[in-house]
Amino acid sequence: MKLLIWILVMNLLAAQAAVAGDPVDPPAFAHARVTDAWTAYRGRLSFGKGQTLALIDDGCTLSLPEWSSSDGEVPKVLVSYDSVDGDDNPQHEGKGYHGSTIGIPSSVNHAGKLGVAFNDQVAVIRALECCHCNVKDSKTLAAGLRWVIDHHEEFRITTVNLAPVDDLEHGAPVPTEIDAELRTLRDLGIWVSAPAGNHAFVNGISWPACQPFSFAIGAVTPGKDTVYLDRHAKIDLLVPAAATSSSNAIACGAAMLLREAIEKTGYDWKQDAPNLPEAMLKIMQKTGVVVEDPATKLSFRRLDVKAALDFVFEPHSAAL
Length: 320
Fold this sequence. Notes:
By secondary structure, the chain is an alpha/beta fold. It contains ten helices and 13 strands. It has a domain at 35-253: CATH 3.40.50.200. The chain has helices at residues 2-17, 26-31, 34-41, 65-68, 104-107, 138-155, 178-187, 244-265, 276-287, 305-313, and strands at 22-23, 52-57, 77-82, 109-110, 113-114, 121-126, 157-162, 191-195, 215-220, 227-228, 237-240, 289-293, 298-302. Strands 2, 3, 6, 7, 8, 9, 10 and 11 form an eight-stranded mixed β-sheet that branches. A three-stranded mixed β-sheet has the order 1-5-4. The model is unreliable at 1-18 (pLDDT under 50).
């Protein structure tokens, strides 16, 4: 009996401590129901524990407090790599700046501020000079993706935030060196998504988001289901945020939560798609909110994190 009471108390304390902080972006997190998911699933999900998110961008200042210290149980930065120079120092060079902040919406756990999957770790990969890129950067981006493929088991990488944008209006894929690596990552069951871009384009989206085997993440205005920024038929999912890079970061965090839910419940994702990333996207889409866009006459789905988790947990709730 004493053992049972001790277990119940420990579980209660763990549940209470699971979300000890405030969302880093309150309007966007409330709109995407991230905070509702934290409340509903505290004690049942670890919110990223045991998973690593690869941040592929233009480098990072690792001395920033968000990355050099963490309120979690483990260091926030697990590993770093520079696929431009071939070393483990991802510091910004040239025009780089973006990678120091892009992981915050998905992963931060510092000074009471929380990202979506706040208990995850990150692999910081500098794969080009500046996030505002060119398809000529495909060689070093491909090298960064190859590093993830080679090390995903060692560092428990489940998710990739492919953050660069070329700021052009691509209505079709642009064949480059990253395509083979993206396909391999999809086959390995690793989620890869990229921001659509921020120019209000309606005839296309940025590269590399326009590529096959990379999910393209667009945006709605936080607090309103109004599509804005770049959108096109290639958009896979909308997420509330001030820019599509933040939308994509939130989507990456949501993918980590959904993966844990699928693993914990034993949900049969093969009924949804032939691989796990596509299955997770399908779940996010069918549980998401329908958003119509008058400018393109297209219908999109907006992320609802709690609804996606509810969909996976519901058939198993009695057993858990």
